[in-house]
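User: I'm preparing a small set of examples for a lab meeting where we compare how different chains pack in three dimensions. I only have the primary sequence for this one, and I'd like the structure in token form so I can line it up with the others. Please keep the answer compact; I'll paste it straight into my notes.
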Amino acid sequence: MKQVFISLGTNIEPREERLAEARHLLKAEEDCSWQESKIYETEPWGVKEQADFLNQVVGFMSKKTPHELLKLCKDIEEKMGRQKREKWKEREIDLDLLYCGDCIVNEENLTLPHPRIAQREFVLRPLCDIMFRPASQRGLLPFNLGQFGTSTLGAPLLYAPSKNKCKLLAIAGIHGEEPESTFLLSRTLRHFAEPLQNVAFILCANPDGTALGTRGNANGVDLNRNFPTANWSAEITLSKASLESERITELSPGSCAGGEAETKALVEIIRKLEPKEILSIHSPLACVDAPKRTPLTNFLVNLSETEYKTDIGYPTPGSLGTWCKENLIHCVTWELPRLAPEILAQKFAEKLAFYFSKTV
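Assistant: Understood. Below is the structure token output for the 360-residue chain.
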């Protein structure tokens, strides 16, 4: 049995009756663990000069193959009298197969997962209605966290492990002055009722700095200059108090490379999990910094409407990114735009949750 999601849409009256008929015809074939989202009225996509659409997503468990489900959708469209028109024009009913479990298909007439879900609010919003926990239940993380170390002041260093082999590790809160990264990652993680298949999370890599409101840890060390890299330097590192200020605030890179409790623990957990890619969330430079373009970098650039860079613009000896490069791990540094935490969560959390949920 596979979890299936199908989107429904119509902009020809009677719209609500057409959606109801499409649901009825689908449910007559597939009613195992049936779910349906709220109905949303949305502006037309592609061609604007037409009536608004009503959109909905339904979900169910099925034994059918992707091609059998595609045929079911097309048969229902034909039965309901869908007419052939130019692309993106009005339609009596439109059924799109979004997901069929973890199936990946790349064919002329079928691509799974559907390639444009994240760009289409009229699909993404109803899909999220039934994919994720209700907003009323997102006050707490619903699953247990593991501990991978202890901070300088004795705080537990926590992570949310993946169910299966970790392919992506998302890390927030390396700098204590960037609590919005932890806020955003927590809001994202609370969409899920259980750990993800292939994504692990570290919500706050520097709990002491976050509690003290300092960039560095309790020893005044910039953890992102303390990783055991070939270019680690004992020289004082400088940072800015704000985007507009000069880079004059002094922090230590530590007494030796990889010597801080938090850095040691991070290195150990990364080596244990062996992710192919790491997402390190920072703020507020508003860019995506990575050695090469990957689906993750492209997603983040489009999501945050920020610039892609291969260099942050200043030396970063002893950084996580440098350590990852030396250890053949692709590291993506996402510098959030300068926005209040709740605005960041409002803009990005749901789409991040969607992306993470489909990382396989």
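A couple of notes for your slides: The two ends are 18 Å apart (CA to CA). The CA atoms of residues 132 and 191 lie 5 Å apart.

User: Perfect, thanks.
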